[in-house]
Amino acid sequence: MKIKTLLLTASLTTLCSTAFAQNYQNQLKNKYLIVSRASCAGLKFNPQATAAAWQNEMECSRGYSNSDAWRITWITPDIFMMTEVIRPNEISPPRNDVYKIMSIQNKTVTVVNYWTDWGNHKPDLQKFRIQ
């Protein structure tokens, strides 16, 4: 009986958190998110928010265009994964980044970036401003 109650509670908690999550994909369509404290480094989302281009500070501050392209996969309404599209070489797997959007308020996007690379790093809270 306790196991059934525990499973039911876990299922309802998951259902409720998914039901009340914001659908941020629509809010990020065609947006340019600039890293907090940067002048131009950030993500430029396509009109469907299914792809993005990463712009490095050095390139954009000099007026250069960066071709660092990413495919966006929405896992839940508030979690997305970015997968590198352009292969750096024939043997390396694509890089992946996982983000959970915590909030979008007053042109500020707050996300948690979950480490997906080698090594052991804690999730990182990041802020972007919408341009």
Can I get a quick summary?
By secondary structure, the protein is of the alpha+beta class. The protein has one domain (23-130). 21% of the residues lie in helices and 40% in strands.
What does this structure look like?
It is built from three helices and eight strands; from the N terminus they run H-H-E-E-E-H-E-E-E-E-E. The model is unreliable at 1-18 (pLDDT under 50). By secondary structure, it is an alpha+beta fold. It has an eight-stranded antiparallel β-barrel with strand order 1-2-3-4-5-6-7-8. The protein has one domain (23-130).
User: Helix/strand-derived class?
Assistant: alpha+beta
Overall residue-averaged pLDDT value: 85
* Sheet with the most strands, sense and barrel status: 8 strands, antiparallel, barrel
Query: What is the rounded distance between the termini?
Result: 53 Å
Q: Strand share of the residues? A: 35-45%
Spatial arrangement of strands, main beta sheet: 1-2-3-4-5-6-7-8
* Uncertain spans: 1-18
Which sequence of SSEs, written as H and E, runs from N to C?
HHEEEHEEEEE
Which shape, going by the Cα principal axes?
A: globular
Question: How many structural domains?
Answer: 1
Total strands: 8
DSSP helix fraction: 10-25%
Instruction: Tell me the number of helical segments per DSSP (H or I, 4 or more residues long).
Output: 3
| Integer-rounded radius of gyration | 17 Å
